[in-house]
From TrEMBL:
Binds 1 [4Fe-4S] cluster. This is Adenine DNA glycosylase. It comes from Cellulophaga algicola (strain DSM 14237 / IC166 / ACAM 630). It catalyses: Hydrolyzes free adenine bases from 7,8-dihydro-8-oxoguanine:adenine mismatched double-stranded DNA, leaving an apurinic site. Keywords: 4Fe-4S, DNA damage, DNA repair, Glycosidase, Hydrolase, Iron, Iron-sulfur, Metal-binding. Its cofactor is [4Fe-4S] cluster. Belongs to the Nth/MutY family. Its EC number is 3.2.2.31. The keyword Hydrolase applies. It holds the Pfam family HhH-GPD. Gene3D superfamilies: Helix-hairpin-Helix base-excision DNA repair enzymes (C-terminal) (1.10.1670.10), Hypothetical protein, domain 2 (1.10.340.30), Nucleoside Triphosphate Pyrophosphohydrolase (3.90.79.10). Residues 35-186 form the HhH-GPD domain. Adenine glycosylase active on G-A mispairs. MutY also corrects error-prone DNA synthesis past GO lesions which are due to the oxidatively damaged form of guanine: 7,8-dihydro-8-oxoguanine (8-oxo-dGTP).
Amino acid sequence: MTFSAKILHWYDVNKRDLPWRNTVNPYNIWLSEIMLQQTRVAQGTPYYLKFIENFPTIKDLAAAKEEEILKLWQGLGYYSRARNLHATAKTVTNEYKGEFPNTYKELLQLKGVGDYTASAIASISFNLPEPVVDGNVYRVLARYYGIAMPINSTEGIKYFKKIAREVMNVKNIRDYNQGIMEFGAIQCTPRNPNCADCPLNDSCVALKENSVQDLPIKLKKIKVKDRFFNYLVVIDALEQSILKQRIGKGIWQNLYEFPLIESQITPNKVAIETELKKYDILNQKFEYYKFNEEVIVHKLSHQHLKTHFWIVTLEGEIPNGVAFTEIDKFPVPVLVADFIKTFKF
């Protein structure tokens, strides 16, 4: 039995019942693939169901407000995915009359759609012989063939794509592509895979050479940068606070947060007063205290945000403040959302 035949047989017996597997509609496939990038299935599934409920079609998604999309996305992280999702929904609605392009090359032109996602949609929705290569597939191929080439190098990316194309099952590309990804997710797992019960164990190079835990190989990541966040949670006499939108490029674009002083030095009264002036709070008496004595470390892919929240109470009121009852309606980063839950406005 060939490699692809073994994968197909395994998938037929072991595949999970996931909501996007009940359709080949490219909208559903695209939505699930974007959501599951850098997200576990268990975490992403509720978000997928929530999006389908709120936006049954791509036209519904295109017509939504960005803030509404970001709020539903809250907690999934990598918010550029949500913004790209919205942009692509508009493109497909306006330029393709609501119908997804049905070729790999056209799919690749959509914002936020790379080689993997284009291949997944092309094969699953349109039955085109395009191999998928995601983290799970890299792991399966690297171990089975004993490939020590780094999967995130230029040469490695090209080589693994070549191997994936050579071994794919063209006649049943839909199930094969989903099968090899599923195989990597629940059989050939990153740590402690169940090699004893693996249908590929009789010909797996990594198992034979005792290098399963060493593969795949990745080049070292970019050095992590520390940033120091001091959030000012301003509270006035009318039970209002301040939320501001992050603009420009960088993390959390277009999400909302409390006024921020980014500094390793503990902010003093003068620094806080200077920040408050940006919100037309002038010459008001205020008191402040540190909410969390122990620093909160929020880890992003290339940044660690070392964070303190400061409660700032005003005697007067905030011009155009946000009522406590409205705070929950704004899309915010998880770091801020966790504080809001803890503080209980």
